[in-house]
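Page 47, continued from p. 46.
Same chain as before, 112 aa.
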Amino acid sequence: MKKIEAIIRKSKFDEVVKALHDVEVYFFSYWDVTGVGNEKIGKVYRGITYSTKDIQRRYLSVVVSDEFVERTIKAILDTAATDNVGDGKIFISSIEEAYRIRTGEKGNDSLN
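Result:
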């Protein structure tokens, strides 16, 4: 099992949700976040420079079985990208075990 954490533009959230559902990933958590990145370039709109750190972001946390990792990452990459600075990041980490509290199921069975 893997935990996929993604920080994406809030404006791309609905598209990412649809893409995740299309690859049969239905459960995840998300939060509205702000942060500071490495971007040195601001966005210029009508002669005013805006910092890209001020773009609203959404933080997604998804735990999937190993067979869903690549399709989940691809779905996020394909839909969250705008080809502009500040599109976000994806982080992958291993999950040792998972339990469904209601039934006591564990492992991959707890994810479905």
